Amino acid sequence: MLTNLRQALYEERANLRRARQQVKRRRRSAAAKGEGLGGRREGLTPDDALGAMSNAVKDMIRAFKQVEKPFLVDGLDEPRRRRGDRESWADDAAGYSSGGIGEDEHADYLYARSRYRKCTIKQRFLWLRYKSKALGLLDAIMRIEVRRIGFQTSHISVQLRQMGQTLDDFDDRMEAIDRIENRLSRIVGVRRID
Fold first, then answer.
1. DSSP code at position 37
2. Contact at 8 Å (CB) between 128 and 70?
3. Closest by alpha carbon to 74, among 115, 120, 131?
4. CA-CA distance, 188 to 186, in Å (whole number)?
5. What distance in Å separates the CA atoms of residue 53 and residue 18, rounded to the nearest whole number?
6. CA distance 162 to 165
7. What residue segments make up the domains of the chain, in order of their start?
8. Basic residues bias located where (predicted)?
């Protein structure tokens, strides 16, 4: 169950990240076309809603790490660090300057290779203590997934509606062009060849 919960949390974080990037891209392309509003609108924007969901997922990941910690094999729950201030400073500077992996990606890597302890009587009693927290996290992440899917579905329906309106406008323009061609052909006597 812990493995499934970890996978759901990290997948949802990645999906929310992708959704926020798409919203930002749409906003930039609308602003470039002159369709966007000049300033910030009143009320919640799609980015605010996705940001709130992302923050909730980050909090859930922190809570999950506390739930998972007693069940991990010793030594794998903490990232290994080099000794010496100079080496760690140089590594951090190199990571930032070269666009290296961020803290989230590093955490994903570490938790992707986590191993759990063998299930003993002690582990089973610990599980009874932490099971309600794990089930609560699983329920909460499912609710966030449903909200994100609803958010994305509503944006897709809006885009399809806009696309339909654009196609209707295009059809109207084509009909107008056909009428103009018919009038011109009557006046000038020119026939259109397809």
1. -
2. no
3. 115
4. 6
5. 13
6. 5
7. 2-77+114-160
8. 19-30
